[in-house]
Amino acid sequence: MWPLYGAGFTTAFGAHGIAANLGAAGKGTVTSLLVLGGLLALYDGAEVLLKPVFGTLADRVGARPVLLGGLVAFALASAVYALADSPGWLWAARLGQGAAASAFSPAASALVSRLNPAARQGRAFGSYGFFKSVGYTLGPLLGGLLVWAGGLRLLFTVLALLGAAVAVWALVAVPVVPPLPRARQTVLDLARRLVDRAFLVPTAALAGATAALSVGVGFLPVSGRAAGLGTVATGAAVSVLAVCAALVQPRAGRALDAGRLTARAGLTAGLLLTAAGLTCATLPGLTGVLLAAALIGAGTGLITPLGFATLASSTPRERLGQTMGAAELGRELGDAGGPLLVAAVATWATLTYGYAALAAVLAAGTVLVATGVRAGSRAAGSGAPGGSGGGAA
User: Can you give the pTM of this predicted structure?
Assistant: First the structure.
């Protein structure tokens, strides 16, 4: 499992470490805000298009080869800019990183499920989410230190070495998990499965959590500056969000496995906590920012492992890669849609109304959870070895 946690850390660290420091790359590299926006969108755009494709490929050829191939490709894409150091190659490297992460991220999620028994799905996804949260937390900080010490090339060099190291680690430590026989699936069959509540509800919850997380990271510093807070205080608030998310995820997963928490109750509580955090963001001063960060972090920390464990429990083992890839696509859409919604409402009114709009959307999502997830749903019948692979969520 540890190399899979390393893969989760790699994708999170690479995404946020570079995104947070592209603006400091120098005038010759990022020449305008339009160029900066394009470089930021390139990575996410590749993930939106390719994660479902690579998830399906993982089911066809096995998740381990896709994991290894993605990590090697990530290392090579990072090395491209580390060696070439030109604006054109930066675009190529960023696109390559996004495409590579699209391969090894859903493959790692599928392996997390396949390599754990049904009774440990929540704990496994909680631990996986913890290390991704650590990557999101350390990415901007360590990335900034690396860019300060040696420029953007040093950051890309470290990412190349990290991707290569995790690839070797996974090659040595991750066991071979052969693809399972699959019944023929038509496009209509796939469409029916993706609009089924067993898939749609946890994926929508994951998308909502990612939307709130993205809004918290992007807009809470804006609220802090408007209240007269310095960069240290606003940076600390964002760190509180990430730390709360990281600490809650393993505990939520263990509670699900132990039967102390059901998927319905956990997802509902997570959405309500996250909505409450966004509501607190409307309060003035440091108190509102810190409360918002803590509650958004705790809420998303509840939703993430429970959402993935619920998806695993409702997916046939032979379709895990496809499901995880499609769920990751849902998260990417939430990652983009949340800030867009808040920004659009804030442009029309104020940022306070933007927070309130997203809070209302998340609170309304509890109705979907209540009607789409069984009250006693746990990670039973999952895609792990020995599971039936067909239980409802």
Answer: 0.72
